[in-house]
Amino acid sequence: LLWTTEKELLFAIEKGLFGLPCTGSSQTIDASSGTLENRILFEQGSYLSVGSSLAEDEEDGARFNFKFGSCSLKWKDIEVPLPPVGAGWGELLYLD
């Protein structure tokens, strides 16, 4: 997630989570199973995780469409499910 433009993810990475600084972030794309997960990690085992469905865009093969399907927030020992809201598209870029 180094080059994301998603404002909410950038905010959490920059500001932290209720006083806990961000320690990393990742995006896992599994095209064969049609899933995408964004995960932001914070100190003390805390995280924000958003799961999505994923499908190739039928009009533009360079793009994929996603729809949020799950969201959870863990802060220290407290884990809370959050409503998954949103959908959109993205483009994959492979660097070697």
Describe this structure in words.
With 96 residues, this protein is mostly beta strands. The chain has one helix spanning 7-15; strands at 22-30, 35-42, 46-56, 63-75, 78-81, 87-91. Strands 1, 2, 3, 4, 5 and 6 form a six-stranded antiparallel beta sheet that branches. Strand 2 and strand 3 (46-56) form a beta hairpin. The model has no long low-confidence stretch (mean pLDDT 87).
Estimated share of beta-strand residues: over 45%
- The residue fraction in helices comes out at under 10%
Uncertain residue segments: none
Q: What is the succession of H and E elements?
A: HEEEEEE
End-to-end gap? 17 Å
In round numbers, the mean pLDDT is: 87
Largest sheet: 6 strands, antiparallel
- Give me the number of helical elements: 1
Q: Note the overall shape.
A: globular
Structural class: mainly beta
Q: How large, in whole angstroms, is the Cα Rg?
A: 14 Å
By oligomeric state, this entry counts as single chain
Number of strands: 6
